[in-house]
Amino acid sequence: MRWIPFSELADLVREAPEGHVLEHYIAITDAMNTLGGTGLWDEEDGFYYDQLHVDGQMIPLRVRSMVGLLPLIAADILEEETIERLPGFRKRLRWFLANREDLGCCFEAGKGGHAHHLLTIAPRQRLEKVLRRLLDENEFLSPHGIRALSLVHRDHPYSFRAGGEEHRVEYVPGESNTGLFGGNSNWRGPIWMPVNYLLVEALERYHHFYGDDLRVECPTGSGRFMNLKEVAGELSARLAGLFLPGARGHRPCHAGEERFAADPHWKDLVLFYEYFHGDTGRGVGASHQTGWTALAVRFLEDVARSRQTSASAGQGARP
Predict the structure, then answer these.
(1) Fewer C-beta neighbours within 10 Å, C or N terminus of the chain?
(2) β-bridge partners, 50
(3) CA Rg, the chain, in Å?
(4) Pick the residue with more confidence: 269 or 99?
């Protein structure tokens, strides 16, 4: 799984019915933000929630999970030169910009003469509110990446009654506490590499558009403000840290297993676990998930590059 840059969609758009991709995106975005008033958006909580349609009523499922973060991923930059190469797409885009001002949630034009547009589900105000949740260490932000479920549900499980039965969602950071879901807790607390990867890439795209004009508190409540590229770097460092040895040689992904820290036959063996404990970073599930967990290599490269840049800057500062 990877995010396809808009430029790579050019051929697909040419071959599809004119405006097909754009109009589907707009329809989905419009429904998520406005259907029934506010769509899936909850202004009070500053979050996107799933909804159930029961007996003619729309009932929001107030579970703060990765589901409410995924709208941030569906964003990209439309460069003007790319748009100009797609006359059918350009025509429809111009029409929407001129005739559907209510779809400001979909399009934001670059400032300061920048010839690009931001195509997004979450407009800036909503983006900032969701980021407060994402970067809160009492919610999604763990020492090792973004949890699939907010930590708030550890003390406050969500319950819903339907058909005379109670259904509960509670924070489960590692192995499942039930036999359901194949024995793992899936999206109820652990850290999953693919969605973290997509979130980091999305933050970099938002920074490409907003630059230093958009700074957020990271972590929430810390008093430290960063632009979104710096936030992406912070997440990259936490995710890379899953695999990096600490002072005593222990890597979080291997928990406290001594042989991976001290035994010369084992200490350089790094396993690509399926997912990771939401609190400790311990590897859980399959230990050779070299499909999606191999995405971690990108974060390790980021950390190595950052360290090299810092070292070079330090040497240059010497008398």
Answers:
(1) C
(2) 61
(3) 22
(4) 269
Asked if 271 and 254 touch (Cβ cutoff 8 Å), the reply is yes
Say how far apart CA 210 and CA 216 lie, in whole Å: 12
How many residues does this entry show for the chain? 319
CB neighbours (10 Å) of residue 243?
A: 24
Which of 186, 137, 147 has its CA nearest to residue 284? 186
CB-based contacts of 315, cutoff 8 Å, min separation 6? none
Of 89, 93, 113, 71, give the one whose Cα is nearest residue 9: 89
| Distance between CA atoms of residues 93 and 193, nearest Å | 34
Residue 194 has pLDDT above 90, yes or no: yes
Closest listed residue to residue 201, CA positions, set 232, 227, 173 = 232
Residue 53 has pLDDT above 50, yes or no: yes
- Copy the structure tokens of residue 163: 């058909």
Angle between helices 124-134 and 193-210 (to 10 degrees): 140
Listed range (68-77, 84-93, 97-106, 262-271) with the worst mean pLDDT? 97-106
Report the SS3 class of residue 37. coil
Condensed to tens digits (0 to 9), the pLDDT of residues 95-105 reads 887 887 776 55
Query: Given CA atoms 260, 265, 268, 274 in this order, what sign does their dihedral have?
Result: negative
Rounded Cα distance, 197 and 34, in Å: 28
d(CA 153, CA 156): 4
Angle at 63 between CA 154 and CA 102, to 5 degrees: 145
Report the distance separating Cα 302 and Cα 305, nearest Å.
Answer: 5
Asked if 63 contacts 167 with a C-beta cutoff of 8 angstroms, the reply is no
Q: Find the largest Cα–Cα distance for the chain.
A: 75
Mean pLDDT of 146-154: 97
Check whether 15 has a pLDDT greater than 50. Answer: no
Q: Is the peptide bond before 219 cis (omega within 30 degrees of 0)?
A: yes
Lowest-confidence segment of 67-76, 175-184, 190-199, 306-315 by average pLDDT: 175-184
% of the chain with per-residue pLDDT over 70? 86
Distances (CA, A) of 205 to 91, 231, 266: 24, 12, 39
